[in-house]
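Today's session is about reading a structure prediction critically. Students often jump straight to the picture, but the first step is always the sequence itself: look for stretches that repeat, for charged clusters, for runs of hydrophobic residues. Only then move on to the predicted structure, which in these notes is written as discrete structure tokens rather than atom positions. Here is the chain we will use throughout the hour.
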Amino acid sequence: MKTAILKMLRETDGYVSGQEICAKLGVSRTAIWKVICRLQEEGYQVEAVRSRGYRIVDGPDVVTSEEVTSLTSTEWAGKTVVYYPETDSTNLRVKHLGDEGALHGTLAVADRQTAGRGRRGRSWESPGGSCIYMSLLLRPDIAPDKAPMLTLVMACSTAEGIRDCEDVEVQIKWPNDIIIGGKKLAGILTEMSTQVDYINHVTVGVGINVNIRKFPKEIQNTATSLCLETGRPIKRAPVIAAVMRRFEENYGIFMQTGDMSGLMGKYSRFLVNRGREVLILEKGSDYRAYAEGINRKGELVIRREDGTKENICAGEVSVRGIYGYV
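Below is the predicted structure for this chain, in token form.
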């Protein structure tokens, strides 16, 4: 009921009468008042005016299931939200939920992680109350070798969702890093449970630096946050809802085509290295080339100095800028 009342307050321009809430939810005025009091105790600024009803003025920066769900307008992506005040990793939680039969589109969100992970097993700094840690459960009817492309679908969706919420110049460092001003803002980690030729479920995890004001010395030159880029604190739940909206849209395009062909142009426009010289880090054979964009398989298309073009796979090589991270 709390989620439904929050959603009604947010979707109404002005006051919502107690009678209207009663009629829609089939509950008593006393029950409504108790929920309003609970919301106020949790930090929501809700005005209660006699003969007019209730109006939400502001809310706290929380990522509870009620808060995220009340802001989400999707058909399935993030429609079910499981919230953890603290957990080891939202990817691990979603994998367990998937094994237990949770629905396609179930979203796990945590306020703090104790065992966050990035690509290639790297640890991911996960302080409480200042970042977005979320993982989405998918059950796509595709071949297992196509699942890695979902990382790119989420990268594109995350960039769009952030841009929808904030006036920042977001870019993508292929395949899965979200960049602002040459510094990393967010990372994406995709994992899957499979049979020989069948996907049980896919977990797509996203970590976004939101309100971190200072990074450890070793990464302060390569990491940033939305707060640092905008100069003000940012509420996390609206960003989560925006990313889910964009992902649902982009996932639909991906599933129609079965590859990145419908998203190639959009993704490549976000690509920070597009048209720039990059360093390809391959076992025993590092070399320079120019990045041109992605192909329909999500591979990075590069052009060597002699003009020959190649497609490189994210699982086999790393790409770095010539003079730094990007």
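Discussion point for the tutorial: The chain has a mean pLDDT of 92.
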